[in-house]
Amino acid sequence: MAFDTLRTHKVRSALTMLGVIGGTMTVIAISSFLTGLREFVLEQTKRFGPDLVFVSKWDNIGIRFSRPSQSERMRKNLTIDDARAIAELPSVSGVSPSMVVGSFAPSASQPIVKFRGVEANRPIIFGVWSNYDVVRNVYIKTGRFFSAPEHDHHAQVAVIGFAIADTLFGALDPLNKEIEVDGKIYRVIGVMDKAPGGLFGGDPVEDRQLLVPFDTAKREHPEIEDISISVKAQPDQFGRMVDQITELMRRRREVPNNKPNDFGISTPFLVAQIINFSV
Questions:
Q1: Pairing of strands 124-128, 264-266
Q2: Residues 128-170: pLDDT tens digits?
Q3: How far from 5 is each of 18, 21, 25, 122, CA to CA, in Å?
Q4: Which residues lie closer than 8 Å to 270 by C-beta, 6 or more apart?
Q5: Which residues pair with 190 in a beta bridge?
């Protein structure tokens, strides 16, 4: 009888089968995407290290599935004094503020970085302190990171990502070459190792980065006030560090006892937990 029904309603049966097949393929595609996302986040967690947090005025940084609320957008920015205060905590090993020039979105405006007329693809500039390579586990392939004197004297030096080096220089040695960054001349002093592949293909963010001294970036872009703070814990002090940062920032930002935090403390591991729960 089932075969008689199929013969009688061929079109309806075909559409039903297509729907079942399409639904199954959709489930498989979503599952594959979430699995890939989880593996990507876990790989990033390994690269950053398990003892790192990111402090910002946003509830969380990185993966977001909705637009920040108006109250979140209206929060006051973090400051360099916040970074210095966090650095004084006994559970903290290292601190670096970060300011970003450019955007992670493909359609947003980007800085122009070029060498002899050749432009880098979607570069992002990070202004950071001279200890950022230790705080964030920056993997240097050739050259070096910039020094504290270079930072303090607003030196126009840059450590560039693998994709930028490959695009601008090809087989040439990038070290000590001069590049244009939004019309200003910077000297390349280091090249980062190639990062794991991007989640959606193409070059990952790390490969498109230019790391420059924070004070140099701030001098060129005084209009950028939103910063985040990367913080690394002393050995076996991660939980204590998070508690101390929370207490310190609530006090500095004068958050009432009966109110929630008006800042966020994000960790690579927390993002991985969210992805694991989703899968």
A1: unpaired
A2: 999 999 999 899 999 999 999 999 999 999 999 999 999 999 9
A3: 17, 20, 26, 57
A4: 60
A5: 143, 159
